[in-house]
Automatic annotation (TrEMBL):
Top-rank taxon: Bacteria
Keyword annotations: Bacterial flagellum, Cell membrane, Cell projection, Cilium, Flagellum, Membrane, Transmembrane, Transmembrane helix
Transmembrane parts of this sequence: 9-28, 40-60, 72-93, 129-152, 180-202, 214-238
Protein name per the record: Flagellar biosynthetic protein FliR
Name of the encoding gene: fliR
Pfam families in UniProt: Bac_export_1 (PF01311)
Main location: membrane
Membrane-related topology note: Multi-pass membrane protein
Family to which this protein belongs: Belongs to the FliR/MopE/SpaR family.
UniProt entry tagged with the keyword Cell membrane: yes
Record's subcellular location: Cell membrane; Bacterial flagellum basal body
InterPro entries xrefs: FliR (IPR006303), T3SS_IM_R (IPR002010)
Amino acid sequence: MINVTSAQLYTWIAMFIWPLTRILGLIATAPPFGSASVPMLVKILLGVVMALVIAPDVPVPPALDPMSMSGLMILLQQMLIGLSMGLAIRIVFAAVEMAGELISSTMGLGFAAFFDPQTQGRTSAISQVFSLLATMVFLSINGHLVLLAVMAESFHTLPITATPNTAEGFHQLALWGARIFSMGLQLSLPMLIALLITNLALGVLTRAAPQLNLFGIGFPITLLAGFVLIAIGLPYMLTPMQHFMSDGIEMMRMLGSVPTIGAPVKP
């Protein structure tokens, strides 16, 4: 007869539930898994399969009741860790989409917008093109596999414990989030400068010949110039995109090794 103690049962449940929570937090936010086009059932099944594969090698704390206060705090902690790691990669994609927004508004295509189910808001057509390009680049460099590998490594560099984490990881994530603007500007700056020169040339032309209809000739010219610049500049955007994605992976790895708060030393 097989006897199973409550401590063993708690350990088995914890070995599956807590890693699953961290993995689902990553899948919920990290592209391409976190896309709204991916069915919820697929996300859950992927998280369960990963948890079953990783769980036997995950170090867990001593037997704790998963439904106790300590167990629920660990559950919340793992969810925050997974969401933070996924957000580190999502910030890179947000920077690429911001570059598309800047180019779209400068070339006069800001009206070509539609509802984006990913962000639950308005997005421009150029931004969507850049987002799809970033997704293809990410998949071409096996970023999705590296993403899952870093998640598996994080259970050893940042093991599941009842001790809370320091706030240093969230501070670094906030600083990384500020780079949305710098990365987006770096990607779009060459095209923005060229479009600015085009608009200045149109302004000089209108000043020299006031009888010309600026709205009649300026709008098609800026649109044509914008599309030509995008066609020329897309191949040169691949290298900085790969560099930014590598930085995002390193940020994930850093978040997966944030030290915990040490126990107070008794005098």
